[in-house]
C-alpha cells in the first residue's frame, strides 16, 4: 500500500482507539484486514483508506479498528496481581461500611478471562455481592466475554485444573463459566479514551496489557481518567511491561508489589503482609 494510505488508516485507528501503528506494522494491516476487504468487496488497502475518508463509513471504520486490536488474554495472567488482590480484598472490606458492594473494573477486558479470574478469587474467598465490570472497545470480544465459553486451549492457559472443574462445565467440547460466576460479572463496550465518570467509583481497577499500544500522551490521559474513578485507597493493576512513571503523578507503585499502583494522595496502599 502507499504511504499516504497507511498514514490515513493509522491516523484513524489512533483517533478511535489510541493504538499507534508504526509503518513496520503494514503486514498487520494486510493480515488482519484481508477478511474485511473480502467481505466488503474492497480491492486493496489503499481503496479501503479512500473509503474510510467518508464520514458516513462509520460501520466500516469501527470494524477496521476492532480488527486491529490485539485480544490476547488468559486466566490468572501473570499471577501476581491476583495474589495481591487476595491480600488486598480483606483490608479493603475492613475499611468499608458493612454491606458495601465492592466494585472491580476490568478495563480492556478482551474475552473476559481477567474478569472471571477476579470472580473466582472472590468466590473462593466467600466475598458476596461484589460487582465486576468488564469493558472493551471491541464488540466482538465483549460478546465472547458475556458468553463465557472457552476452548480447551484457552482454559489450559493459567487455569488450575481444580478451578476449571469447579467453576466451569463442559459444553459441546468447550468450557462454559458456571452461572454463579457469570452473574458476578457484567460486560459492556467502552472506549478507554471516553468519559468514565458515569461509571462511578471502583475499589479495584485492572488495566493490563493495553497501554503498551498507546503513545505516552494517551497513556497519561487514560491513567488519569482511570485514577479519577478509583476509591482513595483503591488499587490499579497494570501489565508487566507497563508503568506509570513519567506518565502521571496521580498514581504510584505499591512498594514491593509488581504491577500494583495506588493513588498518590492515598496513605493506605503500602506493602501487604503475607
Ligand atoms: C491484549 S488485550 C488485554 C486483555 C486483558 N486485560 C489481559 O491483560 O489479559 C488488550 C485489549 O485492549 C482492548 N483495547 C484496545 N484499545 C482500547 C481502547 N481504546 N478502549 C478499550 N479497549 C481497548 C483491545 O480490544 C483488547 O481486547
Automatic annotation (TrEMBL):
The keyword Ion transport does not apply. It catalyses: L-glutamyl-[protein] + S-adenosyl-L-methionine = [protein]-L-glutamate 5-O-methyl ester + S-adenosyl-L-homocysteine. Its EC number is 2.1.1.80. It comes from the Bacteria. Keywords: Methyltransferase, S-adenosyl-L-methionine, Transferase. SUPFAM superfamilies: Chemotaxis receptor methyltransferase CheR, N-terminal domain, S-adenosyl-L-methionine-dependent methyltransferases. Residues 1-274 form the CheR-type methyltransferase domain. It is an enzyme of class 2 (transferase). Pfam families: CheR, CheR_N. This is protein-glutamate O-methyltransferase.
